[in-house]
Write a structure and sequence with these properties.
It is built from 15 helices and 11 strands. It is α/β, with parallel strands linked by helices. It folds into 2 domains: 216 residues, MFS general substrate transporter like domains (Growth Hormone, Chain: A, Up-down Bundle); 233 residues, Vaccinia Virus protein VP39 (Rossmann fold), CATH 3.40.50.150. Strand 1 and strand 2 form a beta hairpin.
C-alpha cells in the first residue's frame, strides 16, 4: 500500500526538514558572528559545536518529555515561535554582547564557551525540542512507529544537509551574518504558523519577516568598528585609524582576519611602505641572494609585501598564493592592490599549490616567503610539516632562501610550535637562522612574538652581521646563541602535527 500522508503529517514533515536546515544554518552563521571578536580557531569552533550539540541534546530530552505530557500542535507552534523570537534577538544583540564579553579580557577558552552559551544555547535548545515533538505528534499507532520515526529522522537529516550546503556555499557569501539570522528567524516563525495557525502568530511572523527585510535593506545595529566583509572562507574587518591613534603619528589602515593580531597594515599616506616589523625581514632574501628575481609568496593578505617589492624592485616577478579570493578582492578595494604583469595570483590552499607545483615541475624560485600563520592560535598544521619542508626545498634554487614568519616563543611554554616547525624544516634545509623580530635579547626568549626563520639548502655562515650595510638593522636581530630544539617535541609531520597542543599552552 502506498504511503499517503495526511495534511498534518505533511506539515510535520516540512517542520522536521526545515528545522534541521535552520539548525545547521544557525551553527555555520554562528562562527561568523563570533569571528570578529574571538577568531575562527579550533578553540572557538570546538566551543561553538560543543555548546550547540549539548543544547540540542538537552532540547531533545525536554521536547520528548513535553510531547508525552502535552501532545498538542499548539505547544509545538509556541516552541517554534519562541525560537524564532530568540534568533531575531540574537541577530540584533550578538555584537553588543560579544563586545562586552571581549572587554572582560577572559582567556579564549572561557570567552568562547560563555559566548556560545549566551548567544547560541537558547535557540539551539528550542530547536532541539522540535524533532521529538514532531515524532510524537506524527505517531498514530505502534505498528507504524518505526517507519514514522525513520521517515522524520531522514527528513531532519536531509534538512541539515541542505542547511549545511546552503549556509556554507550560498548564504554566507551573499548576506551579512545578522541578515542570515533574521532569515532563519522568519523561516522558523513560518514553521510555527504551519503547525498551528492563529492571528497573533501571523502578526508576529509578519513582524519578523519585516525585520528580515529591513536588515537586508538597511543592515543591523551594533556593528563592530570598521568595514565588515564576509568572504567564502573568513570574516574580514578593515579598520582605519587617524594619526592621533597610531604610534607612528600617521593614518593607518588595518586588515583583521583574526582578533588575536592584525594581518596587514598600510600607511594611508604612503601605501608602498612596510608597516609591520616582521615584513621588513623578507628583504633578507636579497642579502643572501642579491640576484633574487623570482619570488613565491605564500599568503597574500593585504598584499603589502608585493606592493613594497614592486616599488623598490620593479623587475622582480612574484607568484602569490592566497586561499581566499575575497581577501584578494578586499586588497584591491582597500589596500591599493593593482594588476601587475610581473605578478601572478593563485587562489588555492598553499599546501595544495606546493603539491601541484612540485608535481608539474614549476620553475624554481630564488626566494620563498611564507606567511600563512595568521596568529598564535590559527595555524594551518599542514604547512608546518616535514612533507611541506620537502616540497619547499624542491621549489627553491640551491642558493635560494626560504623565509618563514612564525608567531611563537623561543623558550618556555609557548615555544613548542616553533620547536616542532624548526625540526620539520631542518629535515630539508642545512642552514637554519633565527631572527626574533620584536625582542631579540636573550632575556625575552620566552615572550610570544614574530620569529623569522631563514632556511637555506647551502651551508652559509651562521653569523652574517654586516655593519654599515642596508641590512644591518635586520641582521642585528639574529639569534646567535646555540639553539637546540626540545627533544620531547617531535618534528611535525602530515601524520602527526599537534600544533593545537602547544598553542593551548598559555
Amino acid at each position: 500500500m502506498n504511503y499517503q500522508p495526511t495534511k498534518i503529517q505533511a506539515r510535520l514533515q516540512l517542520t522536521s526538514f526545515f528545522s534541521g536546515a535552520a539548525t545547521m544554518i544557525l551553527e555555520l552563521t554562528g562562527s561568523r558572528l563570533v569571528a570578529p571578536f574571538f577568531g575562527t580557531s579550533l578553540i572557538v569552533w570546538t566551543a561553538l559545536i560543543g555548546i550547540i550539540m549539548t543544547s540540542l541534546c538537552i532540547g531533545n530530552w525536554l521536547g520528548g518529555s513535553m510531547a508525552d505530557r502535552t501532545p498538542e500542535g499548539k505547544l509545538l507552534g509556541r516552541i517554534l515561535l519562541f525560537a524564532a523570537v530568540i534568533i531575531a534577538i540574537t541577530a540584533f544583540a550578538s555584537n553588543f554582547i560579544l563586545t562586552k564579553l571581549q572587554e572582560l579580557e577572559l582567556n579564549l577558552y572561557m570567552s568562547s564557551v560563555i559566548a556560545s552559551v549566551i548567544i547560541f544555547s537558547p535557540a539551539s535548545l528550542l530547536l532541539g525540542m522540535v524533532s521529538p515533538f514532531v515524532v510524537r505528534l506524527a505517531l498514530e499507532n505502534v505498528d507504524s512507529s518505526g517507519a514514522v520515526v525513520g521517515r522524520l529522522s531522514a527528513l531532519n537529516s536531509a534538512g541539515s544537509i541542505l542547511g549545511t550546503f546552503l549556509g556554507g556555499f550560498v548564504l554566507i557569501s551573499l548576506f551579512p551574518s545578522g541578515v542570515i539570522m533574521m532569515l532563519v528567524s522568519s523561516l522558523v516563525a513560518l514553521l510555527s504558523v504551519i503547525i498551528y495557525t492563529g492571528a497573533w502568530r501571523m502578526i508576529i511572523m509578519l513582524v519578523l519577516a519585516g525585520g528580515a527585510y529591513a536588515s537586508i535593506k538597511f543592515g543591523l545595529p551594533f556593528t563592530p568598528r570598521g568595514i565588515q566583509v564576509d568572504t567564502a572562507y573568513n570574516h574580514l574587518s578593515i579598520i582605519d585609524y587617524d594619526a592621533k591613534e597610531t604610534r607612528a603619528g600617521r593614518p593607518l589602515r588595518v586588515l583583521v582576519t583574526n582578533p588575536e593580531a592584525a594581518q596587514s597594515l598600510m600607511f594611508l599616506d604612503k601605501p608602498s611602505e612596510l608597516v609591520s616589523g616582521y615584513t621588513k625581514f623578507y628583504d633578507l632574501a636579497f642579502h643572501y641572494k642579491p640576484d633574487t628575481k623570482r619570488i613565491l609568496m605564500l599568503g597574500g593578505g593585504g598584499y603589502c609585501v608585493p606592493r613594497y617589492l614592486f616599488s623598490e624592485r620593479p623587475d622582480v616577478k612574484i607568484d602569490v598564493v592566497e586561499l581566499d579570493p575575497g581577501v584578494t578582492e578586499t586588497a584591491r578595494k582597500y589596500f591599493n592592490l593593482t594588476d601587475n604583469p610581473n605578478m601572478r595570483i593563485f587562489h588555492e590552499d598553499a599546501r595544495t599549490f606546493l603539491n601541484r607545483a612540485v608535481r608539474d615541475g614549476f620553475e624554481k624560485y630564488d626566494a620563498i616567503f611564507m606567511d600563512t600563520f595568521s596568529s598564535w592560535i590559527s595555524i594551518p598544521f599542514q604547512m608546518t610539516t616535514v612533507e611541506t619542508a620537502g616540497r619547499l626545498r624542491e621549489l627553491l634554487k640551491p642558493d635560494g632562501a626560504l623565509i618563514v614568519n612564525i608567531i611563537a616563543a623561543l623558550r618556555g611554554p609557548k615555544s613548542g610550535v616553533f620547536h616542532g616547525i624548526y625540526k620539520a624544516f631542518a629535515s630539508a634545509f642545512s642552514t637554519m637562522m633565527i631572527f626574533p623580530v620584536t625582542f631579540p635579547e636573550t632575556q625575552y626568549a620566552a615572550l610570544l612574538q614574530n620569529i623569522i626563520l631563514v632556511c637555506m639548502a647551502e651551508n652559509v655562515s651562521m653569523i652574517s652581521s654586516e655593519s654599515g650595510s642596508k641590512y644591518a638593522s635586520l641582521l642585528s636581530h639574529q639569534w646567535l646563541e646555540p639553539f637546540v630544539p626540545d627533544a620531547g617535541i617531535p618534528a611535525f609531520t602530515d601524520a602527526f602535527a599537534p600544533v593545537e597542543r602547544y598553542t593551548l599552552m598559555q
